[in-house]
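To start, one record:
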Amino acid sequence: MNRKTLVLAATIGLLAPVLAGCGDTDGGSGGDAIVVGTTDRFTASEEEPAPVDPAYAYDVGTWNILRQTVQTLLIQPRGDGAPVPEAAESCGFTDSGNERYSCTLREGLKFSNGDPITAADVKYSIDRALAIKADSGVFALLSTIDTVETQGDREVIFHLESADATFPYKLSTPVAGIVPEGSYDKGKLRDGFDVDGSGPYTFETEVKDGVLTRATYIKNPSYKGSLKVGHDRIEMLSYESAEAMGEALESHEIDVMTRSMSPEQVRELDNNSDDTIDLIESPGLEIRYLAFNTEAPGVEAKAVRQAMAYIINRSELVAKVYGSQAEPLYSLVPATVTGHSNAFFNKYGDPDISKARQLLEEAAITTPVKMTLHYTTDHYGPATKAEFEQLSKQLNDSGLFDTDTKGAAWETFRPDGQEGKFDVYGMGWFPDYPDADAFIAPFLDEDNFLNSPYANAKVRKELIPESRRQADRLAAAGSLNKIQDIVAEDVPVLPLWQGKQYVAANDNVTGTAYLLNSSSTLQLWELGRGVSG
């Protein structure tokens, strides 16, 4: 735009917007609803009947629903950094070994139905997520918990199996959300889109054929926490395409456009002279990567995966598909996060087909290696298809691979990937919290998000626990770098790029600079109405 393009800066290891929203700071302005558009698709199906149960949900879209509606003891602050109290009045480790963590609840907490919240509700919610052990793998975020103890109505004590300096971050994620026992069974997930909690908003839905088409967030009069609610009513509409969402913004059907815009839309908005719409660019921690079923015959041989690492040209991929909206990534850990190393570049350097050929010959791999590159058509944005066509072309042009591409909707793509039906497939990741551990453990630890058969004992038993013992995250860099080197050697995943994130909004909407944090968490409470121009 020039459409007043607002660029939010980042510092190394701590991403923080430098432009604040300029509107009502008292919270709770009334008026008409602020309408937000998204291309996220929310589906309740036979395969995934409980998409927004905190004990199951584990993608950025459903987490964004829960962060508005279900309180956690801690929350990520406005500009990132260490978590701060939310439902809790205070929290902290009570021992020198980072194995005992205690929180005291705020006085007067209530669920949206008016029932009081006690320490017993916190314990119930955490124990429930661990007991259900949903196949989404989200429970693994709480895996270091041994027991949860309560003392009186307001104190909760977490006894950990091993030291975990990242535990406060994990308590700020939706899987640790506090839910009422009367609405959520101890041993069963809650089907559908109903949500009961104590967050800043209550939640009303319109559903058609199992698909959530409209969500309405209404200011929760019982809410008591650290957040100031900028507007009483937020509506969210889900669109089938970025183009349809863009047309809705132009026609004022929506006030705000969030993920995922196409690269073409971002470029057009950046260059357009219409000054009634603001484009906000901010640093993000979203990454994209290829995941491998390391037990599948086509990619079981490490040499095949390493050859792909030699061939794929990240710079060319980014330039042809995403332009300035992404950067090549050479590790699971993004470049702006403490503990990052360029492990893949250090091992493979610039693309080198001759080294890939030599590697395959030495391993007696018959070429061209045939495989299908699978991707999701409706979850990571409209450029995903072009990205996989480019990846396929790079591999095929080497003469060493014979690949094709195949897309599928997220509702089938996600479970098929977990069930090992793909040899290689494309995934994205929005971190659970802004720490290197959130880019390592979900892929490499037991009960990992991918349900990957790859297991490295040194990573799981030694290096991950070693890194978690370090409260000073700089001191964990040695262990984290070793993990990244092992990933580059074994290639259970192949990182591709790290993206920026964008919001477009009518210029009478305030708070857009803080609508997304670096983990792509929507903070709808920041939005308000102001004066256009």
